[in-house]
Write a structure and sequence with these properties.
Blueprint lengths: L28 H14 L3 H14 L13
Helix pairs in contact: 1-2
């Protein structure tokens, strides 16, 4: 390994804006099991499958039909 490296001609990573950010999300057990089962079938890690599904929803601007009633 060199003691010093010259980065003066380095280029920025073109994929840097697509890097993932770690967050905490609470999911119910049946949802986690669904994606884990799907992961076994496809060979794709379940967290990747969840990310792909959420990305598809965001990309298509999918909206849920919610009817929320505040507690009285």
């Amino acid at each position: 390994m060199k003691k010093e490296y010259d980065f003066s001609k380095a280029k920025r990573n073109p994929y840097a804006n697509r890097l993932k950010r770690q967050i905490t999300i609470r999911l119910d057990e049946p949802t986690i099991e669904y994606f884990k089962d799907l992961a076994e079938e496809t060979g794709i890690p379940y967290q990747t499958l969840i990310n792909l599904y959420l990305r598809e929803c965001a990309g298509s601007r999918k909206k849920l039909s919610l009817k929320w009633r505040p507690a009285a």
